[in-house]
Design brief:
Elements lengths: L2 E7 L4 H14 L7 H11 L3 E2 L5 E2 L12 E14 L7 E11 L3 H14 L3 H9 L2 H12 L2
Parallel strand pairs: 1-4, 3-5
Antiparallel strand pairs: 2-3, 4-5
Helix pairs in contact: 1-2
Length: 146
């Protein structure tokens, strides 16, 4: 079973946003101590900002850094710049960071596919950025983990 943590907060950079989400996963014993560093290394090579659908980033790393499967969903008060997965020379303003910690690579791909499909729904995207945090968490769970 995948645990889900939902937080709201502020960050000045994408690294700071990753630091917040990684800290939640680490505090809940879902990831190893080097999870954050590994996410940053991967993000530098393979950016995860989605431009076509919604201002969302999907940072993650290999299962080698995961203890217990989880997602930390962070909604930012103000957007931060992530590099685009479609064009790593461009940045996009991201409001939602879904830091994925998975033990199964095939499940990783399935969850990312679900996320991309859901982000094509205008109502879902609007509610994702505007709803109260408990509704935000429920929406993420229902769309991506159910």
């Amino acid at each position: 079973m995948t645990e889900l943590f939902a937080i709201e907060g502020e960050a000045k950079t994408w690294k700071e946003a990753l630091q917040h989400t990684s800290a939640v996963l680490l505090q809940n014993k879902c990831v190893a101590d080097d999870f954050y560093d590994s996410c940053v290394e991967r993000e530098l090579v393979y950016p995860t900002g989605l431009t076509e659908y919604c201002p969302v980033a999907l940072p993650h790393t290999s299962k080698d850094h995961v203890i217990h499967q989880a997602i930390c969903a962070m909604r930012l008060k103000e957007p931060v710049k992530f590099y685009s997965m479609e064009d790593n020379t461009k940045t996009i303003d991201v409001r939602v960071v879904l830091n994925l910690a998975f033990l199964d690579d095939s499940q990783h791909i399935e969850i990312i596919s679900r996320i991309i499909r859901a982000l094509k729904e205008d109502d879902f995207v609007k509610n994702l950025t505007d709803s109260p945090i408990d509704e935000f968490k429920e929406m993420v769970y229902d769309k991506f983990l159910k």
